[in-house]
Amino acid sequence: MIRQLIEKIQKTDAPICVGLDPMLSYIPETIVKNALEEYGETMQAAAEAVWQYNKAIIDHTWDLIPAVKPQVAMYEQFGLEGMRVYEKTVSYCQEKGLVVIGDVKRGDIGSTSAAYAAGHLGSVQIGSRRLSGFHADFITVNPYLGTDGVKPFVDVCSQEDKGIFVLVKTSNPSSGEFQDRLIDGRPLYEWVADKVVEWGEASMDGAYSNVGAVVGATYPEMSAVLRRQMPHTYFLVPGYGAQGGTAEDLKHCFNADGLGAIVNSSRGIIAAYKQEKYKTFGPEHFAEASRQAVLDMAADIRRVL
Q1: Nearest to 274 by CA among 288, 286, 266, 264
Q2: Could you count the other beta carbons within 10 Å of the beta carbon of residue 8?
Q3: Quick check: 201 pLDDT over 90?
Q4: Which position among 55, 96, 105, 151 bears the catalytic label?
């Protein structure tokens, strides 16, 4: 699967992942109003507003990007209706030829991880049929429980040509409370990186592994160390834009060949129309603002690679 993602990155010349993380506060008032008029003040109305918003952004950006990353929590908050829209969004993006990274951050004991892996990446046996649930191409995985919690995901990666991105050094301000703690003289994130390399050896797909790493753009010195430590591991890089990461910070995440990382931007793209830079688009042209934000981000990244 990582080979497919790389091919799409090379085709678009844009190592960009659009984070489909909708909040009702991001969605233009007219879309929310129309949904409320049709479904009342219900979870279904909220889910419909999210769907219309997502679809417009996808329709205006799909030809510029290789991948999207829907954050499942933004859908779960609307219950079953929200999860229906999550699956609908995954399917629609895949129909457009996009790679879908489900940002689910799962990870538990072995049997539970196996169920998460089947539900979000793989399939389940029901009678004589094997059926897929949310069928993302990649998902994010929390490694806190160790190999027992990660191996079931790696097994599905190898069996069904899927991929995962394991949390290594995240972009949030408090990540250092645990991730930077020294263990036998090395920070915890370096120990996790060693395990990611080990896990990844079981699912290689060309020069890179289907087992990738989440490495935040907000800590460039650390990402430079991790890039050397994990030369065959693809990085999913959050933190660009709204969280403070710059294009200059990103360059440490890439290898000399210009590959090795895909950079996520969520509200910086999907809520671009709310930014001063794009305010001339207005709420009625929010999707056009998102398209321009993608073009600007791609140019910014190319500038430093």
Answers
A1: 286
A2: 18
A3: yes
A4: 105
How, if at all, do strands 99-106 and 163-169 pair?
A: unpaired
55 is catalytic: no
User: Which pLDDT score is estimated for 245?
Assistant: 75
Q: Can you list the domains of the chain with their CATH numbers? A: 2-304 (3.20.20.70)
With CA atoms as reference, report the closest residue to 197 among 183, 185, 208.
Answer: 208
Q: Which residues of 58-81 are buried (b: 16+ CB within 10 A; e: fewer)?
A: bebbbebbbbbbbbbebbeebeeb
Return the residue matching tokens 């649930």: 133
pLDDT of residue 189: 97
Residue 276: what pLDDT? 96
List, for residues 120-129, the tens digit of each pLDDT value.
999 999 999 9
Distance CA 20, CA 270 (A): 7
- What does the block give as tokens for 229? 């430590």
CA–CA distance, 231 with 190 (Å, rounded to integer): 14
Evaluate if pTM is beyond 0.85. yes
Please give the average per-residue pLDDT across 146-159, as a whole number.
Answer: 96
The answer to whether residues 46 and 276 touch, using CB atoms and an 8 Å cutoff, is: no
Going by the DSSP 8-state scheme, the letter that residue 241 receives in this structure is S
How many C-beta atoms surround the C-beta of residue 185 within 10 A?
6
Question: What tens digit of pLDDT does each residue of 2-16 get?
Answer: 999 999 999 999 999
Residue at 90: amino acid letter: V
Asked if 168 contacts 192 with a C-beta cutoff of 8 angstroms, the reply is yes
DSSP result, 57-112: HHHHHTTT-SEE--BTHHHHTTHHHHHHHHHHHHHHHHHTT-EEEEEEEE--SHHH
Place of tokens 């671009």: 272
* Inter-residue contact 174 to 188 (CB < 8 Å): no
Contacts of 51 (CB under 8 A, 6+ apart): 85, 88, 89
Residue 243: band (very low, low, confident or very high) from pLDDT cuts 50, 70, 90: low
